[in-house]
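Task 17 of the worksheet. Students: predict the tertiary structure of the chain below and write it out as structure tokens. Keep your answer in the requested format; marks are given for formatting as well as content.
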Amino acid sequence: MPDRLDSDMAEYVHRYLQSIDIRVITMHELSEITETGRVESVNFGDLTLPADLLMLGTDFMPEITLAKSAGFDTDKYGINIDEKSRALIKGKAAEGVYASGACAHAINIVTGKQDFMYTGSTSIQKARIVSEQLLGIDSTIKGSANPMIAVLRDLNIGTAGLTKQEAEKNNIEVKTCATEKKSTARYYPGGIPVYMKLLFEKNSLRLIGAQIVSRGYGIKERIDALSTAMSCRLTAKDLAWIEKNMR
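Model answer:
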């Protein structure tokens, strides 16, 4: 999950997969599939593995063929839209024509730049804007922190905002804070370890990224709260104040 987790947080996922007898092999490129009516093995250079079933996970790309052929503005991020989710032709909004879903542009709330976001939460945001426009309600797209939740058996993974690598690509210097806490308050018995990493813009200390891994519940709620914090441009000091005064 290099586009969602930094390597130190991905290590928790790696260890979990190993604990349930799943072997993880990285840095190997698929070179050959051996089959005689059915898959027999897969080859990764000098590494050959017998296989009964092969599943390939490929990258996502926005499907813009129809929009492009119809003359709408497109680029690698998808269909160009304005703040009301209207499709653009030569930079101008086409009245009554809207674009939504992963094929339409999304604004990264952290960078303020156009980005390709394929998660359902971001697509729903654009769909809501389109629905409100059709109902005569004036509303605009503010941007998305691109929150995501993944579940591997009983392991929950939550992310929002930028990874450290994405921040560096956008020339954003970061300060990070990684911690291990319990899923319950410190004075309450029990609880499950929660591994959390927060990324802050170096100078302003604005929250720009969050990554959480745990077998416990409540990960979605934490990511929702941190996504809201990013949208409100809260800083590390703001979060500390909330933690101290609003329990």
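Marker's comment: The chain has a mean pLDDT of 90. The first strand starts at residue 32 and ends at 35.
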